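Quick one, T. Sequence first:
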Amino acid sequence: MKNSIKTIDLKQIFIFVSSVLMIPGVFLKLIQINVKMSFFGMSMDESFTTSYWQNGNGDGKYIIALAFLTVIILFIRNYKLIWISFFSYLGIIIYSLMNLVSDALSVGNNPIAKQVLKSVNPDYSIYPREGAILILLGLVFILLAAVIKNRDVIIFDKKPKSFPIVNEEVMQEKESEIMDKIMDEPEL
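Structure tokens:
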């Protein structure tokens, strides 16, 4: 019987983990914005969350398509394409953040909005949520897959079980010693 050692490329693991992290990261909450305002002595606390999916209108559909393309790259094992995948992910994320910032700044350019915001005196806080964490982890894993060299990792090592060769006489002696001990024990 031959030893059967199966290996998997470390790049494959990182690519797969990256795609698995990206897909749920699109549907989970990306950021949470907490707004505290006071207006004529009344205070209001609101919390808003957003995701990449945004009911199919967000940039999440591009990340999901790219995750599936990355899995295809995994199966064809053309690892030079991983760099294209990494920079595409990075471009989508930067584009989304730029749109988010420009939308927030466009509200401040409106003169009426400036007056309202000045009188309301809002206090903002922005927190990354689980979607942002998964997407950033996926981005790190795809970068690791692009950077590292091919290395195999043993995932299954099946060696034949061998038993020591035992002399038949020695075996019978041991068996008789055990039986004698059992018979010599007093009954309770």
